[in-house]
Structures are given as C-alpha cells and as structure tokens.
Amino acid sequence: RIRKGNLSACADRIRRANLAVRDLNEKAQDLIYNITINYKEMVVTDMPAIMPVSDLKNYTSIINQVSYGNRIYLTKNGRGNCALIDMKELDELDKNKALLQLMSKLNESKLSVRDEGTISSEELEKELGI
Question: Whole-angstrom Cα distance, residue 54 to residue 75?
Fold first, then answer.
C-alpha cells in the first residue's frame, strides 16, 4: 500500500529504475553490435592465398577465390606486389578509414578547445573584419 505523501517518491524511483534499465539495454545492444562486427571482421581464411602474378593468366579461377575476408596476395619476383580484395570489404575498409580520420580530427578539435579555449562570435567577427 502506498501513502499519498510517498506517491511522488515512488514515482521518482520507478522513473529512475526505468531510465537505468533503458541505459543498460542500450549498452547491451551496443556491446552485442560490437561483438557481431568484431566476429565478422575475424572471419578470414587460416592461411592467406599468395601466388605469383603470372598465375593471373587464368584470372577467372583466381577471381572466383576472392571473397569477403579472403584476399589474394600477388607476388612479382617473389615479393609482394598487390592484392585482390572483395569490393564490399574494400568499401568497409574505406569507410572505416574515413571514420578514423574524422574521429582523429574531432579529437584534435576537442583538445584545442580544452587547451586554447574558444572565442565569442563578436571576437570572431572582429578578427575576420565583418
């Protein structure tokens, strides 16, 4: 039984509990998503496919071996020359590279604001001569 005076306190506890549960659910979903992504990234062949460029004479059979996570490394005179990679994997690598560059720039900005501070819009206009 809840007394009238305790009703708002109980409602507040329930609200905080709901927020905590929602926060835990979001964290759990993020964790599951990250685990799934990491698992997909780990799915690769045990041994990389390495072959000489001269094997490209039969390029159809070589291209058929390329799939997500299964690259083919081509050598020329016994040294690494180039790689064949699945287009979806390449797109993801490009997207991750761009995201990493963006995060790096954002971190630089955050450090700059922390170390050097900011200026007001009036100071900016004065500096730009507007």
Answer: 9
Residue 43: closest CA among 64, 65, 62, 71: 71
CB under 8 Å to 74, separation ≥6 — which residues? 50, 51, 52, 53, 55, 56, 80, 81, 82, 83, 84
**Mean per-residue pLDDT pooled into runs of 10, the chain (130 residues):** 55 72 73 62 65 91 91 93 94 90 88 82 76
Query: Nearest 5°: phi and psi at 46?
Result: -65, -45
The label of the residue with tokens 């979903």 reads 29
Residues written for the chain: 130
Whether the pTM exceeds 0.90: the reply is: no
Residue 36 phi/psi, 5-degree rounding, is -65, -45
* 58 residue type, one letter: N
